[in-house]
Amino acid sequence: MSRLRRSMLFVPGNNPGMIRDAHIYGSDSIMFDLEDSVAITEKDAARFLVYKALTQLRYGSKELVVRINDLSSGLGVADLEAIVRARPDVIRLPKTDSAKDVIECEREIERIEREAGIPVGSTGMMAAIESANGVLNAKEIAFSSKRLIGIALGAEDYVTDLKTTRSPEGIELMFARGMIVNAAKAAGIMALDTVYSDVNNEEGFIAEATMIRKMGFDGKSVINPRQIAPLHAVFTPSEKDLMKAHAIMEAIAEANARGSGVASLKGKMIDKPVVARAQYLLEMAERAKTITVEEV
Amino acid sequence: MEIKKTGVAGTMESSDIIVRIEPKETEGVELKLESAVMQQFGRQIEKVIRETLGELGVTRAYVDAVDKGALDCTVAARTLAAAYRAAESTDYVWNGGRVK
Predict the structure, then answer these.
(1) Which of A19, A117, A179, B6 has minimal Cβ neighbours within 10 Å of its Cβ?
(2) How many domains would you assign to chain A?
(3) Residue A69 within a domain
(4) Closest to A85 (Cβ–Cβ): which among B73, B81, B94?
(5) ipTM
(6) What is the C-alpha to C-alpha distance for residues A94 and A131, in angstroms, rounded to an integer?
(7) Each residue's pLDDT tens digit, A149-175
(8) Is the domain covering B7-89 a CATH 3.30.230.10 domain?
């Protein structure tokens, strides 16, 4: 089973205190940001800081992601020169409008990997879609590179592009979320949701997390460590769900032992998709358990 | 690397360090350090600053650093940023591989 990415904690790339403490909050991934949270005059300083942190600090088994500046900004390639050499797990490309953006970024990553003697293909990528055009191109983006571990929605720029604003219910994001989750699943990669900016509204945050999990998203970016525990609670299967999944697996095992391909549980037929869902749920719970044990 | 003008990097926030590097006409790096944890880590901070400048080939500079409890990696990162700014250079070196 692939890695859990329920939560991806944004860490401003020019903040040494947050970079130092980022691993203690229990997010599945840590995302060091060189883009929007860094002032234009501090891009060089943030690059040095994130580079040094990646090469000198230990973050255990956490997945380390770095959000670079987009290539058209004139800063993206300089970010890649430093960051690819620091060997993070994933480079997050912002403002992805088309497959071409991903391919261009991949070309630079590959060149740097060769120059630095890093195994070609070992740097993962994720693409953040943040415009109306990008959403329409979600499918070609999702299929554009084998390096992609997922595609993500960046809502702030997206709603600006739509000339609307974000609401607590997220009605303005329904189409984008639908497109992104569907494109990601068709490509066999993860769908990662945008941040929930109102950190003091925990109820709203949980409602949104519950909705995106239901839609098929694998996780969400968070901007405050306080959002991690409630997010994990939403993405961790309940006892009731787990008991049901176990019962399904037992019923199908019994049926297989009897030589029958058909099983039923409490009068309901159990077919292949039901088994696949139960299996996924159990694997997810197992993975979450492993992470919790590691952190203790 | 030649220090051409004053270069500053870092902030006064906790866990950070401000490093100011200025041109010096004579050979040698003259370092003035102020730290909230001078007793325990003063020597280590000075070592990281001098080593980082040494790797860049900076041999003439005045360095003024105010530390607020920065880790070694932060001290090195701020020294690098200040030095490149002071040298007006973007010819960065990452992992030994020179960036073109």
Answers:
(1) A117
(2) 2
(3) yes
(4) B94
(5) 0.94
(6) 10
(7) 999 999 999 999 999 999 988 999 999
(8) yes
